[in-house]
Fold:
Amino acid sequence: MISDFATVGVRSMNLAFAVGVATIPHPAKAHKGGEDAYFVSDYGGGVLGIADGVSGWAEQNVDPALYSRELMANAEAVVSSEEMDFDAQMLLEKARTATTSIGAATVIVALLEKNGSLHGASVGDCGLRILRRGRIVFATQPQQHYFDCPYQFSSDPGGQSAADAVVFKTDLEQGDMVVLGSDGLFDNLYDQDIESVLSTIGGPDQDSAQRGANALAVLASKHSRDTTYESPYTKEAIQKVGNWTISQ
Structure:
């Protein structure tokens, strides 16, 4: 699970991210650093990206982390190229086609122009929230073929491409908070949880961003280990599948 949290501040009269990142892998995956990957770039006002390796590949003796890590490395390598011009969908496709590892991943990227325009694209169930004055004012929605089977980039020919991505653009203001996360974050935190946690965070600076990322990741991890907690994931499972045994 990755919690990637940014606050929007002024840098030389332009808007820019102050970023904090926290990762808490599933206990069974901690020995290898988990299966999620991310990158942060200071291109423009800042760029954030998260990829979540699809765990099912482990059944074929493939490390799911390899695909997600290469995908994010490829995205970081091309994000500042002139042709990209804050095109989030193009960034995903360039990264996907350059990735040669076996496996699959869900993914989201968000690129901030210095004028405050935020460009984003996602495939699958990584997500983004924007908070303004303490309230969520924008949220992405997950893409799924069916419950627990999200859209994904894949080395198999049946995977999605960037043409299948949800693409969005919105304008940020100074002091806005942006939360990116893999499904491990949003499976275990309701939007009101995110609002509550971040209500205690300070201004748009690096220390505040890091405290926010840490706090979100810690609470999500706590909820994931609590077998009595009806998480967003568990609630959806009961609604769509019926009786459900928690196995996260």
About this structure: Helices lie at 64-78, 88-98, 183-186, 191-198, 206-224, 232-241. The radius of gyration is 17 Å. The chain has six helices and 13 strands. The chain has a mean pLDDT of 92.
